[in-house]
Every structure is written in structure tokens, then in C-alpha cells.
Amino acid sequence: MSKNDIPRWAVVLVLTIVGLFCLLIVVYFLKPLSPPTPRPNLPAGKAGDDQPVAETPTTTVSWKIFKNEEFSFKYPSSWSEAETTLLSTRTSINISDGNESVDLPTRLEIISGSYYNQELNRFITLDEWTSKQNFPSESYTTEEIALEGWRGSRHTYHIHGIGYFNTVIALTDSAHSTSMLLISYRHSSSEYESKMPKTLDQILSTFEFIDEAQPSPTPTKSAGNSQRFVSEGCRVGGCSSELCVDGNSENVYSICIYNPVYECYKTARCERQENGECRWSQTEELKACLEEKSAI
Description:
The strands form four sheets. Strands 8-9-10-11-5-4-3-13-16-17 form a ten-stranded mixed sheet, with no helix packed on it. Strands 1-2-12 form a three-stranded antiparallel sheet. The chain has helices spanning 8-30, 126-131, 198-205, 284-294, and strands at residues 64-67, 71-75, 82-86, 90-95, 108-113, 116-117, 122-123, 141-147, 150-159, 164-172, 180-187, 208-209, 225-230, 234-237, 243-246, 269-272, 278-280. It folds into two domains: 65-224, Protein Transport Mog1p, Chain A (3-Layer(aba) Sandwich); 231-296, no CATH class. It is an alpha+beta fold and 296 residues long. Strand 1 and strand 2 form a beta hairpin. The protein starts with 7 loop residues before the first helix and ends with a helix. Residues 33-57 and 213-225 have low confidence and may be disordered.
């Protein structure tokens, strides 16, 4: 065999490799194509990614019910019982989801009543109140809103550095009225996708004002209401709302260690005492409660 002769086995190997390569090409081009991923059905209006897919609302049948002399509403059953604080010109209702901290506000707060402006020496309207609010500009959105005949606006914004959003709904019964209903709702970015946070929208759908023409039943303990009174110029502070301090004082913090006696302050009176300081009024009811809880 000369030097230019190619071994038979080498020829067979080359032909085999070429044949396998051609077979792979044929198989690749003949295999059926995967069907395209179906797009979700979108409502009429915007198309594509600009239109979010609506989720099925969660039922509110098993939710807790809050009711006082002014209104009633439902809220998730996993949240705590509502706590009512009576101020001199308004009422504050706070409902916790258990995640609050020094930097993280309560999940839901509803304030009803009026705001007195010391400079103007009178109660102010909703428009005047709104004009004095400095809502954060980050991710800020707003729109007009109506609820049970009351009208106002929604304000949603991001709290920088903490990683949550807050939605404030400010309502009044008429343009020149000083009666207000302020609803503040803390939520995550997942509920920022729509104009109105989903859970808050569900709460508002259950909201009903009580007809003043009919006598309102007195709230019972079964309604999950607890009330404390806070006089003008004083405020409640501390991790468990156990401190009564001056309203002009700086933020007052306390160690977040639960004590059974703190339950007594949920129905106590935070008032300015004879010495000019804001303290819990030592009523017979508070003394009895403190003595009972201290024994636990």
C-alpha cells in the first residue's frame, strides 16, 4: 500500500460521522413545533402587559365585624380585635395584623370626627386638611373616590427605607363640612399593582354608615370593640400602647415585652393631670384591673 492510499476503516468512520450528522439535521427540522403559550383573556381596554390580570376576590363571609354608633365594616379574621381611642374631637380605630413595630405603623386605622386648627381658631374642612399633608412623592398616586355618599380622595405612596406602601383615603360628607373620615391602610408592594389595594377594597365594600334617624345599638364585647379616652394635648405611646404622654413630646419608645397589665390601658383614660402632665387617670376601674392583671 502506497503512502497516498487511505485505509478502508478511515473511510468508513468518516462516512459514518457524516451520516449521523445528516440524520440529526433531519430529525431536528421534522419534529413538531411546540404550540405557543396561550395569553390570558384580557378585559377590554389596554392590551398586553399594560393590563394586569384580575384575581378572584376572597370572600368576606367569615371576616370579623366592627360596629359603633357611626358605621360598621368587616375586616380579615386573622387580624386583632379593633381598639377604639376616644379623642376630644374625633375617634380613632386601630386594627393590628401582628407585624407592627416602631417603624411599621398599624395595619388599619380609621379616624372619624373633626380637626381643630389653632392658627385659624376653628375646625377645618377636608380640603384644608389635605392641603397641609406632605405625602411622600415616591410612587405617589391619587384619585377621587366616593364611599356611601361621602366623597374625597385616595393617596397611595411608598415609605422609603422600610419597604411598604401606605394608602390614605380622606372623605367628607359635603364640601364645606368639617366632618371627616380618614382611613389609613399599610400594605406591601403586591397590593400596589392596582389603584386600590385589594384587601382595602374588600373592607370598603362592606362599609356601611348607620342611619342617624334610627337608634343605634350599644356595641357589645362580642363586636370586638375596646375603648380608651385620650384628651386633647395628650397621646398614647409605647410598643404596647401602655404609655400616656404629652402630645408635643418626641416619640416615646418602650421595650416590646408583653405584660398582662397593658390590657388595662385599652379602656383607660389618658388625660392631663393636676400637675400639668399627661398620665393615666387612676380610676377605680383601672386600679381594679391593674391589681387583677398583676396577679397573673
